[in-house]
Fold Aldo/keto reductase.
Amino acid sequence: MDAVVEHIETNVFSGPITVPKQTSIGDTALRVHPLALGASTFGWTLGPDESHDVLDRHAAVGGDFIDTADSYAAGRSELIVGSWLASRRVRDRMTIATKIGRHPDHPGLRPASILEAVDASLARLRTDRIDLLYLHGEDPEVPLEETLGTIGSLMEAGKVLAVGASDFSPERLVEARVLAANGLPRISAIATRYNLMERRGYEGALELVAHAQGLAVVPYFGLANGFLGGHVRRRSEVRRDARGVRLAKHLGRRGNRVLAALDEVAFAYGAEPATVALAWLLAKPNVVAPAVSADTPEQVDALVAAALLPLSRSDLVELDRASA
C-alpha cells in the first residue's frame, strides 16, 4: 500500500474550520457540507500528490464530504483517500462515501462479494467504518433482500453507518422501501447523473420516488464532465482523451444556450459558471450535495462556493428555460 501512496505523518488542519452550511443526508445522523468532493480522478488523471493537494484545499475551505468508489482506478482512488485521511489525521472530520459492486475482484451484490468488498474498502481507506455505502448499480441476479440483509449485518457490526443506491431504477427503490418496512436496512440516499445538460434521467419518476421516500439526492457529473465550467466552447478546444469525448457531446446549440444563461447569472453575482451550475442543483428539492471532482486546488473554491450562492427565482427560471 505504501508503495502506491506515500504516508506522511503530519496534521495541517489543527485549527478550527468554519463550515458555512451543513445539510442532513436523508434520515441519517450524517450532516455534511453540501458539496461532495468526487474522487473519481484520483489515481486516474491525478497522482497521489496532486490528489492530496486537492483534498487539502477542500478541507481548508470547509469541505467535509468525500465521494469515492472501490472501482475508481481499480481501487487506487480509495488508496489515495485513505492515505490522505491517515496522514492528515482528519478521519473524524470527514464523511466518507464509497461504492461497491463494480470492482473486478468483488463484482455484483451477492453477500460474499459485499462482505469482501467492504473489508477491502476499509483497508484501502484506512478506517474502521464507511459513513455512506452505496450499492453501485443493480444486480438482477441477486434478490434485493439478500443484498440488504448483508448490509444489515455490516451495519450491526459498525462497519457501515448508512446505505445508499447508485443508478437504481425507481422500481427498485420502491422494492427496497417495501423491504425496509419489513425490517431490512433503509436506503437513505441515491447517487444519479443530473446536471443542467442531463435532466431527463432524474426529473420524472426517479425524482418523484426520491421526494416520496425522503431520499437524499447526490448528483454526480454535476458539471456535465466539466462542460458547465465554461472553459471549452469550441471543438478545437476539446482535449483528445476520454474526458474530452464526454464533454464534446454537449457542444452545440443547446449547450451554447445553457452556457450563455450561466454566463449572465454568473456575471450578476461575480461568480464562476461552475458555481452557478452547482447552485442550480442545490436549489432542487432533495438534492443535498453534488459530487464533483476538481483537477487543481484552485478549482475547489468555485465548487464549494455554490453552497453560499442562493439563486433568485428568476435565475432558476432562466436556467430551467435555457436547459429545457
